[in-house]
Amino acid sequence: MEAFHTIQGEGAFTGQAAYFIRLGGCDVGCTWCDVKDSWDMDAHPKYSVAAIVAEALKHPARIAVVTGGEPLIHDLGPLTKALRDAGFRTHIETSGTSPLSGAWHHICFSPKKFKEPVAGFHLLAHELKVVVFNKHDLHWAEGHAAKTGPNCTLYLQPEWSKREAMIPLVTAYVMTHPRWRVSLQTHKYLNIP
Predict the structure, then answer these.
(1) d(CA 5, CA 59)
(2) Domain ranges for the chain
(3) Using CA atoms, how far apart are residues 148 and 111, in angstroms rounded to an integer?
């Protein structure tokens, strides 16, 4: 769908330069999605792996973040191999609703209520990021956290359109449940992609 050089705005690598590769296609359909134009895979041009990597190499960041849509509806093995061969760290942001493909340095797993993740995906995650749209999401987040491995970092992220109401809720929760961390969409505060 698109690719761009920017600052990672969320989660464990917030503040670091990154090259984002946003793939078209999504079968999850979050009502609050901020990139709904990514859902239709056929609405976007197709590029070869070589062309994607060549474009990424034009920028100094060596973290390549593959996102979507839902990137795992594609076979990501060839893309991650080419990115790694070119010297990139490979990161993915996914809802985990399709089986994992590709070789990843960092897996950001962000489950959604709209479609269940595949069995066992929680144990693959380096980072669990739960978008908090209402207070019930905090209990739902705990259910997912209970399935992750011991080295998975846990994040609660206020949904952007409800941030004014959700930030106090999330910060109070993290203060009383310190194994969680707050993730904010800092790229939106910085007014960058």
Answers:
(1) 7
(2) 2-189
(3) 12
State the Cα–Cα distance between residues 178 and 128, nearest whole angstrom: 15
Q: What is the DSSP string of 63-128?
A: EEEEESS-GGGS--HHHHHHHHHTT-EEEEEE---S---S--SEEEE--BTTBPPPTTGGGG-SEE
End-to-end CA distance of the chain: 14
- Run of H or E including 6: strand 2-7
φ, ψ dihedrals at 5, nearest 5°: -95, 125
The CATH code for residues 2-189 is 3.20.20.70
Higher-confidence position of 25 and 153: 153
3-state SS assignment for residue 139: helix
pLDDT digits (tens, 9 = 90+) for 117-128: 999 999 999 999
Q: What is the DSSP letter of 9?
A: -
Q: In this structure, are residues 107 and 94 in contact, taking their beta carbons and an 8 Å threshold?
A: yes
Please name the residue that has the structure tokens 């980072």: 127
- Full-model pTM: 0.94
Number of residues that this document lists for the chain: 193
CA torsion, points 52, 54, 56, 62, in degrees to nearest 10? 120
Gap between the Cα atoms of 67 and 78, Å rounded: 15
